[in-house]
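Worked example 4.2. Below are the chains of a multi-component assembly; read each line carefully before continuing.
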Amino acid sequence: MSTAAKKSLSLLQFLLTTWKLNLAGAMEFRMSFSISVGTMILNNFVWVFFWGIYFTKFPLVNGWTLQDVMMVQAIGNGAFGVAAVFFGNFIGIANIVSTGQLDTYLAQPKPVLLNVLVSKMTVSAIGDLLFCLILYGLYGVHTGLGLAKFLLALLIGAAIMVFFNVLAQSLAFFIGNAEGLGFQVFNAFLTVSLYPTNIFHGLGKLILFTALPAGYISFLPIGLLRDWSNSFVWGAVGVALGLALLAFRVFRIGLKRYGSGNMMTMRM
Amino acid sequence: MDVSREKTLREPRVSSLALQVAKYTAVGKITVRNNLAYLYDYLIRSLFLLVILYIFAQLWRVTYDGIGTATISGYTFEQLLWYLVFAEAMVLSSPRLARRIEDEVKKGDVAYQLTRPVSYLLFQYAQYMGEAYVLVPVHLLVGGALGTMMFGVPHFGWGWIGFLLISVGAFTVNFLLNMILALTSFWIEETRGLEFVYYKIVFTLGGMLLPLEMFGGTVRQIADWLPFQCVVYFPSKTAVQFDAGEIGHMLGVQAVWAAVLTVCLTLIYRKGVKKLNVNGG
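Applying the procedure described above to all two chains together yields the following C-alpha cells:
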C-alpha cells in the first residue's frame, strides 16, 4: 500500500473513532440525549405546521409546491444536521481561537482544522438529521435515483454550510473576538437556507448566491431534486469545493497569526 | 388616653398594600436600571430580528401579489408585516425564566432568594416585567425600522395605547405560564426542554408566525380555548387593528387566565418549596 493510501486510511480511522466516541459520550446521559433530540424534532415540526397552514390557503409560492418547500426544510435541516453532528465545531472555531484553546489541537499529530471540526458533536442536531429523514420519507421520491439525488443534495448542502461558516469563524484570527459576528452570520445563513429562493428578488437574491451563498442549499430541491439542471448542480458543486479550498487556505493563513492564549486545556 | 387619641399619636400609617406595591415596584425599577446598562448589547443582538422580518416580508409580498387581493384574512400586507413586528417583539422580549431559575436551583442561589423578606413569586414577577419593558422598545425599534422603511411611519393611533394596555396582561400570563414551567426545576434538573417546547406552542397557537384568523376551522377553535393567544395574538392584533369593543373582551380573557394560572402557580410553589433540596450555594 502506498504512503498516501496509508495516510488516508489512518485519517479515515481517526474520523470514525472520533465520531464513535462523540456519540458514546452523548449517549452517556440517555434522558438528556432523548430530550435534546426530541425537542429539536418538535422544533422543526413547527415549520411543517406553518407551511401546512400556508398551503391550505395558498396552493403555490411562486410556483413552488408544498412538496418542494418540505424538501427545502429537509435539505436545509439535514445539511445542518450533518454539519453539526459530524463537524460540530464548524460554528465554534471563533471561540476556540479567541480563548486560546487551539493549542491543544496544534500539539496533536492530526490535520488541525479537521481535528477541530470533528472534536465536537452537537447532540440536538441528531434531531435535525432524523427530521430530515422523516420529511424524505413523507415527501421525497422513494426510488434508487431519488435517494441518490437526495444524498447528493445533503452532501453538497452540508459542505457549503460547513466551509462557509469556517470562513466566517476564521475571522477570529484577524479581528480577535469574532464569536458574536460568526454567530450572527451562521444564524442568517441557516435561516435563509430554509426558505424558497424564489421569494427573494433583486439585491436579496444576489446576496443569496454570492456573499451569503445559502441559495445554493435552498435551491437544491428544485435545481437538483425536481428538475435536474446541469448548470445549477455543477455550480453548487463548484461553490462547495471552492469554499472548502478557501476555508482550508484562510484557516492556514490564520494559524500563522495565531498567538497562544497560555490556557491549559485538555481533550478527554 | 382613649384609643382614638392613641392611634393619632402613632407614626403616620401607610397601608400594608401600598408598602408591598412600593417594594416590588422598587425591584422592577432596579431591574430596569440594570438592563438599561446593556441597551447597546440588546440592540446588536436583536439585529437578527431584521433577517427574520425581511424573509417574512418577502414571503408575504409574493403571496399577496400571487393572490391578487388587497387583504388576506382581514389583513393588508402592511398590517400583516406590522403584526409580525409586534408579535416577534413580544416573544423576543419575554425573559427566559426557566433558564434563570434552573441555574439558581443548580447553583444553590435559590436558597438566598427564598430567605429574603419578599415573596419569591412577586419578586420574580417584578424582575420579569422590568426586563420585558426594557426589551420591548428595543425590539419594536429594530423591527419597526424595517416596517418604516417599507411603509413609512405607522399611524396606529389608539393602537399604541391598546398595545401598551394589553401587553401588561400578555406579559403577566406569559410570566405565570413560564413560572409554572420554571418551578418544575424544583423536581427535575432540566427545564429548558420544556421551555423550548412551550415557545413552539406560542409560535404556532399563540399567533406569532401567523395571526389566528389565518388558521380557521378546528385549529382556530383550539387556539381560542388556550391561554397562548393572550401572549402574542392579543397585543399584536390590538396594535395593528385597534377595536375599542374588543379590548374589554381581551382584557377579560387575560384576567380569567391570570386568575386560573395564579392559583395553579401558588399551589405548585407551595408544594415545590417543601420538596426543594438545595445543593451547593
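Take a moment to check your reading of the output against the notes. Chain B has a mean pLDDT of 89. Chain B touches chain A through 28 residues (CB under 8 Å).
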